[in-house]
Amino acid sequence: MQDIHVSPDNVKEVEPHIRGALRRARFSVAVTGAGISCASGLPLLRERVEGVPLNEFFRAELWRARPDVYYRLYRRLLSEWRRARPNAAHDALARRGVWVITQNIDGLHRDAGTHHLIELHGNLRELRCITCGHVYGTDLVWRFPVPRCPRCHQVLHPGISLEGEEIRHYSLAVDWVGRCEVLYVVGTSLQKDPVRRLPELARRRGALVVWLNDEAERLLPRLLTGATVSSG
Q1: Is the pLDDT of residue 74 over 80?
Q2: Rounded-to-integer distance, Cα 222 and Cα 125, Å
Q3: What confidence tier does 2 reach under pLDDT thresholds 50, 70, 90?
Q4: Do the annotations mark residue 129 as ligand-binding?
Q5: What region holds the Deacetylase sirtuin-type domain (predicted)?
Q6: What is the model's pTM?
Q7: Is 149 marked within a binding site?
Q8: Identified catalytic residue from 121, 134, 153, 157
Q9: CATH number for the segment(s) 1-41+86-121+168-232
Q10: Where are the domains of the chain?
Q11: Most CB contacts within 10 A, which of 90, 198, 199, 205?
């Protein structure tokens, strides 16, 4: 089955086919990336925060070598992302009951009410100790320049997977995609391993793969629920 790439220019043409597939499907899954959260005001990896390229935030070298710089950036991001709210694309996935596999760390799918959710890279709203395994909320970030574990005093690791670290629950994500009949890929081009393998897995099982990378906050509600969302 051929993939469908949805854009503002072709949505009228492809909408009947996608909505028909959705009606027939018993199980649908979405894989989401940073693009779905742009309409919520969150930055993309190519942007700079506190003078630091945002992609540096996901590199373990900065956390290990300069935890003071790392957590200054963390506090800035956390303060911005705590103000963010789910947009119409997050809401549409939750209302339709689509199971979500996200590469994002912003927690907006949780806030939208998605019940079946895999956060492959973890969540910005947690800290964890890699020595003793305890997990904490982010209050320690505001109390100390470099948060440490209250039990063993090691520098806390952000509750996200940094570059080179294993992503979470990937085998479960493979199981979901292997069983779905429609796979939505929203706000991501899935260029990196291992997530780039997921669409091919869905294709091999006969699923329809639908890509939305432009104006997902407007087009996805239309496709999933029939709702019209203003582009303004």
Answers
A1: yes
A2: 31
A3: confident
A4: yes
A5: 8-232
A6: 0.91
A7: yes
A8: 121
A9: 3.40.50.1220
A10: 1-41+86-121+168-232, 43-83+124-160
A11: 90
